[in-house]
Amino acid sequence: MSDHAATPMAGDHAVDIDKHVRIYITVFVALMVLTVVTVTVSRFHLPVPIAVTVALLVAIIKGSLVACYFMHLISEKKLIYAVLALTGAFFIALMVLPVITVHDGFWIH
Amino acid sequence: MEIPYTVAIRRDTGLTNGKIGIWLFLASEVMLFGALFASYILIRTGAPTWPRGDTMLNVPLATVNTIVLISSSVTMVMAWASLMRGRFETFRIYMGLTILCGLAFLVIKYFEYSAHFHEGALPSTNNFLAIYFTLTGLHGLHVMGGMAVNAYFWGPGAKLWKENPTWFTNRVENAGLFWHFVDLVWIFLFPTLYLL
User: Fold this and answer.
1) CA dihedral angle for residue A13, residue A17, residue A18, residue A23, rounded to 10 degrees
2) Under an 8 A CB cutoff, do A95 and B38 touch?
3) Sign of the alpha-carbon dihedral angle for B163, B153, B98, B96
4) Chain B CB within 8 Å of residue A57 CB
5) Helices marked H in chain B — which ranges?
6) Predicted interface score ipTM higher than 0.85
7) How many CA atoms lie within 13 A of B102 on its CB side?
8) How far is the C-alpha of B62 from the C-alpha of B166, rounded, in Å?
9) What are A57-82's pLDDT values in tens digits?
């Protein structure tokens, strides 16, 4: 199969794609550097609360880079943001649920 | 019957149906993995002792797998960008690389799992291994699913490019969204299971 003449995007949009590609490469390098940071920090055997905070912070930065640039969330439609806001709210509730259970009698007193 | 809004944008949503569909699916996936992460937190915080991941798991192999999966996300987005530029042959190369990265990830995971099984480290051994096998196993199934979809678009599904390039490009973008999500999940699994 050969290259198709009728491209989904041409002209000015093709220039936009070139710009996107440069961003993808930059994000890729950033993700690699952050992976090295995660592994290096884990070798210091920091106290658990600090280690968890650092590891999750780096993971959140990496995840945000993937979501914003590879998944194009940086310039998405409002409806997608609305769906994700709802998902985020329920996700946070899920994460909070096990945390509050460690406090005995939290709901009773 | 023709599928509506595969190329044309719906006026009410501002999106194609495929795009909103894949995001709704990903929202359900967030809750699926979220529930398992919450279970992990619950089990870990409730346990009197918990092993550090690096004492039981192979961190160098998992680091390589992280690099492989991040690379596959880049090749996936480059595959989509190639279609946007109208370069079908370049798309095939990038999509092929994405599939190969997925395969490399699974092969490395196979070696990791084999080593655990040979040592007698099974899901039934302790809670740490139970949650490790559940989370990485489910993630592995997602890698397989993503590879199957990508392989379809690399092979027989690519016929659509000749008939309707915009629709094909949209489909590849949606497959990419799923693939990036799989990468995103691993970005959180790697430190929480292997390094903490």
Assistant:
1) 140
2) yes
3) negative
4) no
5) 17-46, 53-56, 59-84, 88-118, 127-154, 160-163, 165-189
6) yes
7) 27
8) 37
9) 999 999 999 999 999 999 999 999 99
Tell me the Cα Rg of chain A. 21
Q: How many CB atoms lie within 10 A of CB B113?
A: 15
Task: Give the containing element (helix H, strand E) for B24.
Answer: helix B17-46
Give the count of beta carbons closer than 10 Å to the beta carbon of residue A104. 7
- Contact at CB, B31 and A91, closer than 8 angstroms: yes
Amino acid at A42: S
Contacts of A29 in chain B (CB under 8 A): none
Facing A87 at nearest CB: one of B30, B67, B196? B30
| Tokens (6 digits) for B110 | 């196979």
A25: its two tokens: 């490469």
Q: Considering only CA atoms, give the Rg of chain B.
A: 19
pLDDT string in tens for chain B (196-residue length): 788 888 899 999 899 999 999 999 999 999 999 999 999 999 998 899 999 999 999 999 999 999 999 999 999 999 999 999 999 999 999 999 999 999 999 999 999 999 999 999 999 999 999 999 999 999 999 999 999 999 999 999 999 999 999 999 999 999 999 999 999 999 999 999 999 8
CA distance B166 to B19: 13
Band of residue A2 on the pLDDT scale cut at 50, 70, 90: very low
The answer to whether B74 contacts chain A (CB < 8 Å) is: yes
